[in-house]
Amino acid sequence: MNIQPFDFQGHEVRVLVEDGAPRWVASDVAKVLGYRMASDMTRRLDEDEKGTRSVRTPGGEQEVSTITESGLYSAILGSKIPAAREFKRWVTHEVLPSIRKRGGYLTPEATEAALTDPDFIIRLTTSLKDERARRAELEAQAEADRPKVLFADAVSTSKSHILVGDLAKILRGNGIQVGGTRLFKWLRENGFLINRKGTDWNMPTQRSMELGLFKVKETTVVHSDGHTSLSKTSKVTGKGQEYFIARFMDGRFQIEEAA
What we know:
Blueprint: E1 4-8, E2 11-18, E3 21-25, H1 26-32, H2 38-42, E4 50-57, E5 60-67, H3 69-78, H4 83-102, H5 108-116, H6 118-126, H7 128-155, E6 162-163, H8 164-173, H9 180-189, H10 206-211, E7 214-222, E8 228-236, H11 238-249
Antiparallel strand pairs: 1-2, 2-3, 3-5, 4-5, 6-8, 7-8
Helix pairs in contact: 3-7, 4-7, 5-6, 7-11, 8-9
């Protein structure tokens, strides 16, 4: 499998195209996104978002660790450096549209061959029919992947815990029509917040805490008569933001429209 190097702000980022779908060399992406090691980045990815591929290099066949497009978005979301947002824009606005338009990249070596080798021209021409068939499939995939790109935009800069009402605002900004009150109700009805009236009303359930979706902020309140009480507020973690936004945007979670 051929591998193609690209330049992002002086960093080499290698991409290989497998059946029309890009896979990114994990070590290159990790370096751009500020991870100490590629394993620190791939550890947080799902199994179907990473893997190894055999590629041809000047030294022969070599196994390299790669990540899928979905894995790339997850890696971008986990990055803590400001350049991550610029990298995402470069990927989504330059690299991916080019792949989906042409089914892949024409390397400098292929360009040279096309100019000097008549047999190469014949082989290239006979492959165009397959490329055109794949293009329609890739365009459909691009539309299917659109929520992933919007999702990355929505939370790529969000590293802090936020209120449920703020999560509702992010969702509204990405086409999910919901307000804070309805989102609280949905979270209670679906087992993420406690639905029992009392001091634990709207607090995270054990399930939510185990998943790392919420944190509870405790604040000591001093009253006018001198006594104190403890106020508790549920806040959505960075992981929780990724969890809910991804699922609402791809349709796994749905909330009824207001009457």
